[in-house]
């Protein structure tokens, strides 16, 4: 997991090294993470943190020692999805069709953003807040997407005035719209298709 275990860093570590967790602290951490995933899947990312702690068999104080706020817990939960998206972007970075690679990655991003209710809204909010723990997700995603977008633009397939920041906001907005319409499973793909039509570079 990318950086998720840094939550128990000792404050006095002047060199910035991460102190390994004690065995009991690690067990608590893993139980909290597992219960958070279940709670987010059942109730969305607004799920009660007190309930997460109770189901993990610890007090709310223990939860906050590991995860200072909701966004910190969400960041830890999302690390597996983040790793998957970053791996996929690296695989697509040398694809023969740069525009197709970008589209495939955006679809994967929307799929992951739709895994838990509230994710898309939280990521949209975190994109404007560099102090949010969720920026640990949004920053590497922006960097990965920028590389794919630049290749598509260099190939003349995407307009030069398109930015990765706008694209990520659009994909989160699409995921949020789809979240509000669970009876229409094709909505996200239709909205992405409409968006992509506006990205194409015009013929000279």
Automatic annotation (TrEMBL):
GO MF annotation, one: DNA-binding transcription factor activity
Record bears the keyword Transcription regulation: yes
Domain HTH tetR-type span(s) in chain numbering: 26-85
This protein's UniProt keywords: DNA-binding, Transcription, Transcription regulation
DNA-binding region listed in the record: 48-67
Keyword Transcription: yes
Superkingdom, taxonomy of origin: Bacteria
SUPFAM superfamilies, alphabetized: Homeodomain-like, Tetracyclin repressor-like, C-terminal domain
PANTHER family reported for this sequence: HTH-TYPE TRANSCRIPTIONAL REGULATOR BETI, HTH-TYPE TRANSCRIPTIONAL REGULATOR RUTR
Name of the protein described by the UniProt record: TetR family transcriptional regulator
Species of origin: Streptomyces spongiicola
């Amino acid at each position: 997991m990318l950086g998720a275990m840094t939550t128990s860093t000792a404050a006095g570590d002047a060199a910035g090294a991460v102190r390994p967790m004690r065995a009991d602290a690690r067990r608590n951490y893993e139980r909290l993470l597992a219960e958070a995933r279940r709670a987010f899947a059942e109730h969305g990312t607004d799920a009660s943190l007190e309930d997460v702690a109770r189901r993990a068999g610890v007090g709310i104080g223990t939860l906050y020692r590991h995860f200072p706020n909701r966004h910190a817990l969400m960041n830890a939960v999302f690390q597996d999805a983040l790793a998957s998206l970053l791996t996929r972007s690296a695989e697509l970075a040398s694809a023969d069709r740069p525009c197709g690679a970008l589209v495939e990655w955006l679809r994967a991003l929307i799929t992951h953003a739709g895994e838990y209710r509230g994710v898309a809204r939280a990521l949209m909010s975190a994109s404007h807040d560099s102090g949010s723990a969720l920026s640990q997700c949004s920053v590497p995603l922006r960097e990965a997407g920028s590389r794919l977008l630049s290749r598509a633009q260099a190939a003349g397939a995407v307009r030069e005035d398109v930015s990765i920041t706008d694209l990520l906001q659009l994909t989160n907005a699409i995921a949020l719209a789809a979240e509000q319409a669970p009876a229409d499973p094709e909505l996200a793909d239709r909205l992405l298709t409409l968006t992509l039509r506006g990205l194409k570079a015009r013929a000279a």
